[in-house]
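Q: How would the structure tokens look for this protein?
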Amino acid sequence: MKQLILIITLFSLSLTVFGQRGEQQYDKEKLEAARVAFITNRLDLKPNQAEKFWPLFNQYQEERGKMMEEMSAINRAASNETDDAKAKELIKKRFNIQEKMLQKERQFMEEIQQAISPSQAVKLGSVNRDFTRQVYRMQQGRERRGGRSN
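A: Here is the predicted structure in token form.
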């Protein structure tokens, strides 16, 4: 029953989130609220766990997002014609960012296990990806229907 309610909530949020053509592609606050509900439900977070979990998760996501933006900038630079010296520099930068991301993920996993169980921590990555896939599928379905929100 919990999952049915969650699916209905996600579907209705997707209609709202992606139904705002012309203004903004999506409502970030509603999307994040749906992500919180989805992850909380799938990991079966207790209130005391959630209180510790979400600040750590949000900080990690923010830091990871910044590193992903750096990686995107490097990829954009790499798509331009570059000489071998510039290419070597971009490769080095890419590996440095990947190493930072791995260190940050290790640190996050150590910290998060103070808030949630190791079994919940190991599920987190797939649960987060499941949420993204579900929202993407809803958006694709909506686009196939011609952009209608009902």
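The chain is about 80% helix and 0% strand.

The helical segments are 2-18, 28-43, 47-79, 84-112, 118-144.

Upvote if useful.
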